[in-house]
Write a structure and sequence with these properties.
Its EC number is 3.1.11.2. It is an enzyme of class 3 (hydrolase). The record marks 177 as: Transition state stabilizer. A 7-stranded mixed sheet has the order 1-4-5-3-2-15-14. Strands 6-7-8-9-13-10 form a 6-stranded mixed sheet. Strands 11-12 form a two-stranded antiparallel sheet. The protein has one domain (6-281): 4-Layer Sandwich (Deoxyribonuclease I, Chain A), CATH 3.60.10.10. The protein is of the alpha+beta class. α6 runs parallel beside α8 (200-211). A hairpin with a 4-residue loop joins β7 (122-126) and β8. The radius of gyration is 18 Å and the shape is globular. The two termini are 27 Å apart. It has helices at 16-21, 40-44, 48-55, 72-75, 114-117, 147-165, 188-191, 200-211, 217-221, 238-241; strands at residues 6-8, 30-36, 59-63, 81-85, 96-100, 106-108, 122-126, 131-136, 170-175, 214-216, 231-232, 244-245, 248-253, 260-265, 277-281.
Length: 283
């Protein structure tokens, strides 16, 4: 577990965590929001609080937070459990966070490999019926210089998720930095093996993860849907032209796929070069 973690818990015995958690009745689906905010402080200035509040999620995962402490506006959100995991390797880089209405049984900020655990890219929360992981996967770099490190990361992740899946079903979400198939980005041929996120290696690694008994929820539900992206470069008016990539995912254990109620991309929510994604699942 990373030692450099900014965490907040409500400490009351009749806690706010319990009070807020009661809003979700047993018959209600669990609502999970994931969003690469491209800098949490900057996103707060672009209606982050309003956007998160409107979605009313039970658990929120954030990627690329780029800060060491929560902005006060985020602290004020009605989530009694808050974790922020900054990078220990490079200040102001990467970083992930979790906000939750319910207190998990346990929370870990890495998967046991110091080389990766210090990067601020992993939050694993264990609840009664499932494991949930929010992650910000390594970008392979403009010249693909990080591809070997990224491949090593993927091998560790696949092993860890497979291990967890033997205990309880897994929900894996975040910016996975890969467009799995040609349908998942606008200009596939121009980017293949030239751009991070669309190399044969990255795509194969993601495919191997799915072969371990996991499902890409969005593509399973919408197998033929085109132009359904989650990331758009700030350059060339890409978002307005919908020249994008689908690199943000919900991946779940195959055995809970039938529990999925809804998965969607919140394309109308701005504030970052990514849009949030949301999963509703009956667990």
């Amino acid at each position: 577990m990373s030692k450099r973690v900014y965490s907040i818990f409500d400490k009351g015995t009749s806690s706010a965590a319990e009070t807020v958690a009661k809003k979700r009745k047993p018959e209600d689906p669990l609502r999970i929001l994931s969003w690469n905010v491209a800098g949490l402080r900057a996103c707060v200035k672009k209606k982050f609080v309003e956007s998160v509040t409107a979605e009313d999620a039970d658990v929120v995962f954030l990627q690329e937070t780029k800060c060491d402490v929560f902005p006060p506006e985020v602290l004020a959100l009605p989530y009694p459990v808050k974790h922020l995991v900054p990078s220990k390797v490079k200040k102001g880089h990467a970083g992930v966070a979790m906000l939750s209405r319910e207190k998990p049984i346990a929370v870990n900020f890495g998967f046991g490999e110091k080389k990766f655990d210090d990067m601020g890219r992993w939050i694993h929360a264990e609840f009664d019926k499932f494991h949930i992981i929010g992650t910000y996967v390594i970008n392979s770099g403009d010249k693909l210089q990080n591809l070997p490190t990224r491949h090593e990361w993927e091998e560790h992740v696949a092993a860890k998720l497979t291990e967890l899946d033997k205990e309880k079903p897994v929900i894996y979400t975040g910016d996975l930095n890969v467009a799995h198939n040609e349908i998942d980005l606008r200009n596939a041929e121009a980017n293949r093996n030239k751009s991070a996120g669309f190399t044969d290696q990255e795509r194969a690694d993601f495919g191997k993860l799915l072969e371990c008994g996991f499902i890409d929820v969005y593509r399973n539900k919408y197998p033929e849907e085109k132009d359904c992206y989650t990331y758009w470069s700030y350059l060339a008016n890409s978002r307005a032209r919908n020249t994008g990539w689908r690199i943000d995912y919900f991946v779940v254990s195959e055995r809970i796929l039938d529990k999925v109620v809804e998965v969607k991309h919140l394309k109308d929510v701005y504030g970052s070069d990514h849009c949030p994604i949301k999963l509703s699942i009956q667990l």
